[in-house]
Amino acid sequence: MSVQMQLRRIIISEIQDEQVIMLKEVEGERIFPMMIGIFEASSIDRRVKHMVSPRPLTHDLIASTIEKLGGELRDILINEIRDQTYFAVIRIALDGEIVEVDCRPSDGIALAVASGVPIYVAEGVLEEVCGND
Amino acid sequence: MSVQMQLRRIIISEIQDEQVIMLKEVEGERIFPMMIGIFEASSIDRRVKHMVSPRPLTHDLIASTIEKLGGELRDILINEIRDQTYFAVIRIALDGEIVEVDCRPSDGIALAVASGVPIYVAEGVLEEVCGND
């Protein structure tokens, strides 16, 4: 089972390499914090602030590549935590099937925010990080 | 017409935002310099140095997305310069046709280096920047 999350907060610190992003349950109160790199944090932040770029940024390129190849981005799922590292997949509908592509959660979230698709976290991962609902 | 280039040099400066990448003609002597962001420069540099990452980095994600959707990345082409800004496309074979996806040259080069496909620059762009062969 997976739980839909929304982007709650991005904390960008110019004096640290790792930035903090917080996801919150859409239908609940659990907060899921994640450390991500400055590039991904900036990419998400630009998007949230509706800043536009004259040329497609990296996560726009992923979105347009999916579209040009006939796929439809459905959502992203943070599906595993192993040795304190999160893993995720992007899920794409293609010819009536769902294709999953492994990614880092930060890329997945940046892509989801760029494309306006939902972000999910597997219930097991959420419990491990935040406890039970 | 387009001219095949190879990555000649990456100059990373920690005190400047913009980094320099130099492409050189495979069958000629013209050098094509480009300013790119630190993220793309680092991504290319990591790749050239064969540094491995436990999780797919952003340009690996583009490569695996193309593959999972049944496409085959062929090459990248820097095809235009407008107001001192370069534009590029990635070219993907899909079902016997070539699909082009707009990108920034830095993303295109990072993807080409990650995937081991050729980099081309349109002859017109090369002439504008470097003069005639």
Compile the SSE list and pairings.
The structure is a homodimer of 133-residue chains.
Chain A: E1 2-11, E2 18-25, E3 31-37, H1 38-48, H2 58-68, E4 72-82, E5 85-94, E6 97-103, H3 105-115, E7 119-122, H4 123-130
Parallel strand pairs in A: 4-7
Antiparallel strand pairs in A: 1-2, 1-7, 2-3, 4-5, 5-6
Helix pairs in contact in A: 1-3, 2-3
Number of domains of chain A: 1
CATH architectural designation of chain A: Roll
Would you identify the regions of chain A where 5 or more consecutive residues have pLDDT less than 50? none
- What is the rounded Rg of chain A? 15 Å
Number of helices of chain A: 4
- Please state the average pLDDT score of chain A: 91
Instruction: Report the biggest beta sheet of chain A as strand number plus sense, adding barrel if it closes.
Output: 7 strands, mixed
Give helix % range of chain A.
Answer: 25-40%
Oligomeric state of this protein? homodimer
Shape of chain A: globular
Superfamily at the CATH H level of chain A?
Bifunctional nuclease domain
User: Taking strands numbered 1, 2, ... along the chain, how are they ordered across the largest sheet of chain A?
Assistant: 3-2-1-7-4-5-6
Q: What's the order of the H and E elements of chain A?
A: EEEHHEEEHEH
* CATH topology name of chain A: Bifunctional nuclease domain
Task: Give your account of this protein's structure.
The structure is a homodimer. Chain A has a single domain (about 1-130), classed as Bifunctional nuclease domain (Roll), CATH 3.10.690. Chain A contains 4 helices and 7 strands, in the order E-E-E-H-H-E-E-E-H-E-H. Chain A has helices at about 40-50, 60-70, 105-115, 125-130; strands at about 1-10, 20-25, 30-35, 70-80, 85-95, 95-105, 120. In chain A, helix 1 (about 40-50) packs parallel to helix 3 and helix 2 packs across helix 3 (about 105-115). The model of chain A has no long low-confidence stretch (mean pLDDT about 90).
